[in-house]
Structures are given as structure tokens and as C-alpha cells.
Amino acid sequence: MSALNSASVSRSVHSVKPTKPWKTVKKGLIRLLFAIPVVTQLYPLLWLLLYSLKTNEEILDGSFFSFPKVLQWHNYKEAFQSGHYLKYLANSVFVTGVTMICVILLSSMVAYAITRFRWKYGGVVMLVFMMGMMIPMQTTLLPLMIIFSKLHILNTHASLILPYIAFQMPIAVFILSGFMRGIPHEIEESAFVDGASVYRIFREIILPISIPPVMTVCILTFISIWNEYILAATFISKESLKTLPFGIYTFVSQYSANYGDIGAFLVMGALPVILIYFFLSNQITKGMVAGAVKG
Amino acid sequence: MKVLKVSAGTIAVFVLPCLVLYICLVFVPILVSLFIGLFDWNGIASFSTAKFVGFGNFNTMFFHDANFWPSVRRTLLYAVASMLEIPLCLLMAILLNRYVRKGNVLVSIYFTPVILSVVVIGQLWKTIYNPVSMGGMLNGVLIWLGLGAHTHNWLTEPKIAMYALYFVSLWQYFGYHLLIQFTGIQNLPSEIYEAARIDGADGFKADRYITLPLIVPIFKISIVLAFIGSLQAFDLVMVMTAGGPAHATDVISTHMYNSSFLSQKYGYGSAMALFLVVICLIFTSIINGIFNRIDRKVS
């Protein structure tokens, strides 16, 4: 650190020339520092991709950096055919989609009521939601299992969607109410005077204005629900209802000897979210930060 | 100021669906746990056969379960270990802000593992940790570096397995904490730095006296997220070792899960779930307390 400091001092005192070699070294060091995490964070993923295109023999020789001689695309074909990939994918899309719609609808209504209505219990309701933030989802596994089996909805998508909605609610309400509190009152007032109902104001004024925080909620919900594994593995046992993470787990434990196929299935399992991240990385990182900072 | 005066019915329409659903799925289960935790019940037979044992389950948990306290210790170690990388992330974030013009591109690259499902991460690292005979990458690298003596069966040796898990967690969330700190630094008002430069505080001096104090709230968020996240650590352990070998990687929640669903001790599992809820509440308030104190000192 002190070396860097003195370098900047000497640069300001002397002319540029004598500092040049040091500058190159410094630049190199900094590049190296930032390159190391690129390798450690991405290479395992690249390694998996290579792994998925190899034969069992190539995988078992234990080299950590080698290209497959012939790209074994048939690994993907086999993983695709024996693994119900599309079924799992469709289930994940359905469960995540329904959860997202319900979370946004319900949480924006509550956030609106908390921040804009004149009533006594707004603060209490907010507190109830915030308290839930500290309750770990897995502690409700067992009681929910008992409750759901009494209601006969175990082994249905409802048994996933309902708790997913509930556990996304606190952060969603928090983010949305934080935003709605700042919407100027004049907008609603004039609409109210003009005779618009509360429902219409909510639908046609508040919701459209709230698109940015709604997007944040969408992203947070998507990432956590799309990847959720434990509830899915506990409440679902029917093959045709499994979501992608649980499906991957099932596939891997069933075909434990076909390394290439497993690799291929893992890549296919990671692919949807990687693709989405590739196109929306800015929105996603922003959303995740907003979720972290506001939560 | 809240402008809209609406009827109670309207409020109910806006609030009740969500609130009822929420209470039924988050708070009612806790009450159910509280109730079942007082019984000895295997979950298969109807509840009428369950035996009331009062606080017997808690007694067993605290005094007669050889695996309980070690799992608590591992959970706390997990939480501490997960915080260790955050200062490093802060340092990286400061340097990124200083030296790289398009730092956010790098940060989004580092962030990639965060968005992947824990199942993919877990299986990926399981294959990385495999013995060389099964194509494991880590042991391959060690042999290549001439450190063949240090190869291990990372996930099946009881003494090492837990550290192997900590590492995966650190790896996955490195980008997350870096992103949070990086964004935090970017959002600091640039006028302060300009003023400081005029006063002669530049470079690392500015970091020491401006960035560090101002970043405390963001740093706190990272710490809290890491700490609470690892108290709840569950799915990664479930996917990679399920608490094995021989309970060597059991944390509170996997111990709870295995007791309830594998050993069919529903009452006991519920008692442990309650313990987990309480421990999360306690530690969240402790951390918040510590940081409030730091906040006051700094500002």
C-alpha cells in the first residue's frame, strides 16, 4: 500500500518518465488481481461444460484442463431423452410464473394499503410482514408437511406455490412500500376528486408508476424460486410434477455412472438462468443489490 | 400523510388475502411446531397416538443428543467463516472502483455463481471434489502442482468435509458481497472525494477516511446477510453431503431435517425447528446491536 502511495506522490513531483516501469508493473499486478477471481468463478463452469462433452474415459483420466477429442454431443441427447428435461423445465416455468404473478399482485395491494390508506393498523401489518423475514423457511417444512397432508395438497404444485408466495412476501412488501411512500399525493388526489375508485387508481395510476420496484421484486422472486430445492424435494415425489432443481438432483442420483450425461444435464439445468443472466445481467445485479440493501 | 380515506371493506380487500395467506403459511407453522414439539410422535400414526412429553424433547436436545451441540458449533462456524471473505470483497471493490473503468462488467462475471441453483453448484463441486480416479478436478490440480501428498477425499473424510462445504459457500457468494460493496462505493457522492482531494487527501488516504466510514452501513448489510444466510445454511449441505459422513457435516437445519424425516421423530424435529427460529432471532438482534454501536462511534 505504501509503495502505491509513494508512487502517486512521486508522479506528482517528478515528470512522468521515471515512474513508467513501475506503472507497468503496477498495472500488471492489478490486472492479475482482478483476473484471478475471473478464473476461480468461471473456470469451474467452463470445466463443467467440457466435462459434459467428454467420454467417461476422458473424464476419469483426471486431467483438469483438457479438451474432449471428439465433442460428445450424444451426452446431451441421452440426458435429454432419459431425464424428462422439458417436463421439469415446464414445471419450473409454471411454478415460478404463478408465484411471481401472485407475489406482485398481493404484495403491491398490501403495500398500497399500508402506505396510502388512512387506517389504524397499517404499521402493525407492516411489522407482521417484517417479522417473517427472520423466520427461516426450513423451520416450516415439517409443520407445513403435516398441514398440507391434512388438506390433501401434498404432491401438487399448490404445495410449492403457496409457501413460495408467503416467503417472498416480506421482501416484496418492503421494497414496494418503500417506493410507494414516495409517490406524490397530488396524483391520486386529483383522480380521487374526479371520482375514480380506489381500485381504478391502484390499477391505472399506482401500478404503472411502480414498474421499477415491481421489476426488482420480479427478479428477486425469480432467482430464489427458480432455484428452490428443499421444499420441492420434500413436498413433491411425483416425477411429472418435479421442478428443475429437484429434477437435476433426481437425474444425478439415478445415472451416477454416466459422468458425461450428468454433466450434460447439469449444463442444461443451469442454462435457462445463465441465458437470462446473459441478457439481463445489469437488471439482475441491480435487483439483487436493491433486495439486499433494502432487506 | 395518508390521503385516502377508504371503507373498512376496501382495506380488507387489499390486505386480507395476502395477510391471511402469509399468517397461515409462516406463523401458523411455527405455532404447530410449538405444539408438536411437546409430543413424542413419529408422524406416521395418527396424532392421537402421540405421547405428551412436555419439554422432554428440549431436554433430549440439550443434554442427551451427541450430535446436537456439534451441529450448533458447525452452524456458528459456518456463519463466522462466511463473513471472513467480506473484508476481502471490500478491498477488491475499492480497488475495482479505483483502477477499472468498467468495473461492473467484471463484477457481473464474479456474480455468475450466485444465480445458479444450489443443486447445480452442489453437484458441480461434488465432481470437482471427486477422487482423481473419478475425474475430480481439485485433486488433479494438486497432483499437477506436485502436491500429490495433499490430495483428499474431500467430502468423505470427516475432518475435512465441513471445510470443503464452507469453501463452496464462500466461492458461491464471493460475487454477491463484492457486488454489494462495489455498488455501495459507487453510490457514495463524488463531491466528498473532490473536496478531500483539494484538502490533500487522495488515494488510500481518502479510502481510509472517507470510503471506510461511509461504507459501514453497506458492510453491515453484507455481514448480516452472510451471517443469517449461514445460520440457515441447509440446501447446499443437503445436496452435497446430507450431513454425512457419520454426522460430520450436520448443521442445525440438516440435523433437524434428518431427525424429522429420516428418523421419523416429528416431535423432536419440531423442537429443533423452534430452537433454530430462536437462535436466528437472537443473533440478528446481536449483530444489529453491534453495528448500531459502531455506527454511533463512527458518525
Top keywords for this entry?
heterodimer; A: mainly alpha; MetI-like fold; 2 domains; 76% helix; globular; disordered N terminus; B: 299 residues; mainly alpha; two-stranded antiparallel ribbon; 12 helices; 72% helix
CATH architecture of the largest domain in chain A: Orthogonal Bundle
Mean pLDDT of chain A: 85
Computed structural class of chain A: mainly alpha
* Strand/helix succession of chain B: HEEHHHHHHHHHHH
The number of distinct helices of chain B, counting runs of at least 4 residues, comes to 12
Round the Cα radius of gyration of chain A to an integer and report it. 26 Å
Strand fraction band of chain A?
under 5%
**Which strands sit side by side, in order, in the main sheet of chain B?**
1-2
Strand element count of chain B = 2
CATH architecture descriptor name of chain B: Orthogonal Bundle
User: How many domains make up the coordinates of chain B?
Assistant: 1
What is the molecular shape of chain A? globular
Structural class of chain B: mainly alpha
